[in-house]
Amino acid sequence: MGSKNFEHREHEHRENRRDDASRLVPCEHLAEYRARNGSESLRVLQRCVKTEASGRACIKREAKEVPRCGSCSRARGRLYACVVCGTIGCWSPPDALHARTHAQDNPGHGIAVDIERAELFCCFCGDQVYDVDFDRAIIAARADVLRRETEERRRNAGDVGDNLKKNVGSGCGRDGCGDFGAGSRTVSGLVVSSPCGGEVGNSHESRKRRRSIEYKPWVASGQEQLGLKQSSTPLNDGKKLPAGLRGLNNLGNTCFMNSVLQALLHTPPLRNYFLSDRHNQAMCQRGDAQLCLGCDMDIIFTAAFSGDRTPYSPANFLYSWWRYASNLAGYEQQDAHEFFISLVSGIHDEGGTTSSCKTTRSGDDNCHCKVHRVFSGLLRSDVTCTVCDLTSTTYDPCVDISLDLEPDFGTEKGFSESIIHAEHGGRTSRAASSASGASSLLGCLDRFTRPERLGANEKSFCERCQTRQESIKQMSIRKVPLVLCFHIKRFDFTRNQPKKLDRYVQFPLFLDLLPYMSSSIVRLRHGNRLLSVSGDASNLPPSQSPSEFELFAVVTHSGKLDSGHYVSFLRLNKCWYKCDDAWITRVTEDYVRASQAYMLYYVQKTLFYKASDTARPPMGG
Amino acid sequence: MRASVHRPPTPDADEDREPEPTLQEIINIKLIESGEKERLKELLRERLIECGWRDDLKAQCRAFTRKKGRANITLDELVRSITPKGRAMVPDNVKAELLQRIRSFLTTDPS
């Protein structure tokens, strides 16, 4: 092959193959290889692959073996092993390209694999190529390792009870653990590689610590010590009840409001904000005459944490809220979730702080008003054209996540959906494979983030095809908020009579959102490579960004769609309290677990404080 | 003219015989054989992630790819252009630590 001829062909290959975002269009040589040897030939490479905990993969080799180039015995630099015969060729431009020499001398041996990185390489095109079956092999190799690791861990920990197969749904349900180790992720081909899974030791911890601010201990100065001595009053430790626990009187079907207020009163970032007087009524810019839901919230916080345990009537707040959401005003029963959304918007709009909140759209990712800093997250939506594989991505801010309940199991729709997941490089939906009757938050989250085939009447416009095509949509969580509110859509409007779905939904106490975050989901789509999610400014590697959450409030509903009662549960000082309007009682965890969850509030397990926060206005006097 | 008997010997016929292994290559082989190279790589990875080098380099790669356009880039080009920058960005303490490890490996290694 003359060099001129070769170069021309090489250029042509580049044009054909490297289309934007289309990693699945193989180069001519890969396509030829696949045609000749079949897709199975790339899948069997799974046996040759060794994976690390972090998802990194390499080709297995003996302990003392030194891989060398077959032509020049070179042992440094990039070495590629031919997938057909295993001959190793080096690749050190510009002179030593022995991998290509091997390919040229042996027809059909054009594809090789990088020994250190387990990536396919086309020796003619001189560039990495990608193949779905090979990616699957890598993922499967990783799954094997995970499965073996967790089995070992379980054996060592002396775990009895449910075996892996049964542990679908949320994780370990015993003893309030709610934790799901890597075990529950390996069932039925689920292959999420979490860098946190299984990795112990200093490296992991130091990486986790890197981004947080160093803890500097505080010691009181002379003045401060004096102040402490003079102005402190001892805590009444005879009191067993946690601070801030106070009943709210029902002012006329206001249980929807009371239950959400209870949850907000004990939302740690919000509680801290108001209790540290960040919203000062005296300094409030809105003044007395105008409506300020922030001030009203401040009053409620003060009342709740005053130490007075008699039930409180949030009448002023109710009135203010009616003025804000006039369409919902009145004494009819309302929906708690609707109230929550309305309240968040209300505090954003009428919050009246010094921040430049007014200029940002409601729910804007960078909004600095207190509610958005606490609740606002970012959802990522990927729409992939089924014809040309082009994916278009959009980001939408959200203050909560509304989850659909899983459909009835065992139907054809459920099974065909699970087939689509497998094809799209996703994981098998737990929903389709779990037993009928039981539902879980994790199952709903699976459903929320599964690749969904949009119907023929929902075709979306594809930029490349320049026409409407059928597409596959997949949601994921791009940025998690400090506090995440899940709303379970318990209403079914598809029938003539809208009805409420009373199905029990199991929910965990501790939740790791990592598998549902964009970084994990996009990674899975790309064969589990360590990619950075495209287009993001702040790049936290998966093990760094906070993804572990714990449950602190549950709003439950009992009754029918148009009439029922809301009750909320709060977790304070590791005890659960039932807040039924003015009646607060302590309950067991199992009681809470058995309740019918409607809204679930999770807070990040470790809250990172930003080094420089917006300066608050100086206190008067 | 009489041929000199003292002329230098003709070069060997197999001119493409590989030259004597350099010191670098010898050390490299030793490191791989003993498994030390893997350990060093892990250590290096950890240090480079800790000090933010990996994130910075990722940003560089992304910027380069964006500039060239995703369709016009090959692995070789990327490696060729990013490598010098990457090398320069390694903090001195990391270099020192790695060198120290290699040095101690070589001195304590029996062979």
TrEMBL record, chain A:
Localization per Swiss-Prot or TrEMBL: Nucleus
Higher taxonomy: Eukaryota, Viridiplantae, Streptophyta, Embryophyta, Bryophyta
PROSITE patterns, per the entry: USP_1 (PS00972), USP_2 (PS00973), USP_3 (PS50235), ZF_UBP (PS50271)
Protein name, per record: Ubiquitin carboxyl-terminal hydrolase
Family the entry assigns: Belongs to the peptidase C19 family. UBP8 subfamily.
Function according to Swiss-Prot or TrEMBL: Recognizes and hydrolyzes the peptide bond at the C-terminal Gly of ubiquitin. Involved in the processing of poly-ubiquitin precursors as well as that of ubiquitinated proteins.
Domain of life: Eukaryota
Gene Ontology biological process: protein deubiquitination; proteolysis
Gene3D superfamilies named in the record: Cysteine proteinases (3.90.70.10), Zinc/RING finger domain, C3HC4 (zinc finger) (3.30.40.10)
GO MF terms, alphabetically ordered: cysteine-type deubiquitinase activity; zinc ion binding
Reactions it catalyzes: Thiol-dependent hydrolysis of ester, thioester, amide, peptide and isopeptide bonds formed by the C-terminal Gly of ubiquitin (a 76-residue protein attached to proteins as an intracellular targeting signal)
Species of provenance: Physcomitrium patens
InterPro entries: Papain-like_cys_pep_sf (IPR038765), Peptidase_C19_UCH (IPR001394), Ub_carboxyl-term_hydrolase (IPR050185), USP (IPR028889), USP_CS (IPR018200), Znf_RING/FYVE/PHD (IPR013083), Znf_UBP (IPR001607)
Domain UBP-type: 40-150
Keyword terms: Hydrolase, Metal-binding, Nucleus, Protease, Thiol protease, Transcription, Transcription regulation, Ubl conjugation pathway, Zinc, Zinc-finger
Residue ranges constituting the USP domain according to the UniProt record: 246-605
Principal place of residence: nucleus
EC number of the protein: 3.4.19.12
Gene Ontology CC: nucleus; SAGA-type complex
Automatic annotation (TrEMBL), chain B:
Gene Ontology MF terms: transcription coactivator activity
One Gene Ontology CC term in the entry: nuclear pore
UniProt GO BP: chromatin organization; mRNA export from nucleus; protein transport; transcription elongation by RNA polymerase II
InterPro entries: TF_ENY2 (IPR018783), TF_EnY2_sf (IPR038212)
UniProt entry tagged with the keyword Phosphoprotein: no
Broad class of where this protein is predominantly found: nucleus
Keyword Coiled coil: no
Protein location: Nucleus, Nucleoplasm
Keywords, comma-separated and alphabetical: Activator, Chromatin regulator, mRNA transport, Nucleus, Protein transport, Transcription, Transcription regulation, Translocation, Transport
Any Pfam family the entry gives: EnY2
Function noted in UniProt: Involved in mRNA export coupled transcription activation by association with both the TREX-2 and the SAGA complexes. The transcription regulatory histone acetylation (HAT) complex SAGA is a multiprotein complex that activates transcription by remodeling chromatin and mediating histone acetylation and deubiquitination. Within the SAGA complex, participates to a subcomplex that specifically deubiquitinates histones. The SAGA complex is recruited to specific gene promoters by activators, where it is required for transcription.
Quaternary context: Component of the nuclear pore complex (NPC)-associated TREX-2 complex (transcription and export complex 2). Component of the SAGA transcription coactivator-HAT complex. Within the SAGA complex, participates to a subcomplex of SAGA called the DUB module (deubiquitination module).
PANTHER family noted in UniProt: ENHANCER OF YELLOW 2 TRANSCRIPTION FACTOR
Family: Belongs to the ENY2 family.
Name of the molecule in the record: Transcription and mRNA export factor ENY2
Lineage: Eukaryota, Viridiplantae, Streptophyta, Embryophyta, Bryophyta
Gene designation per UniProt: LOC112289454
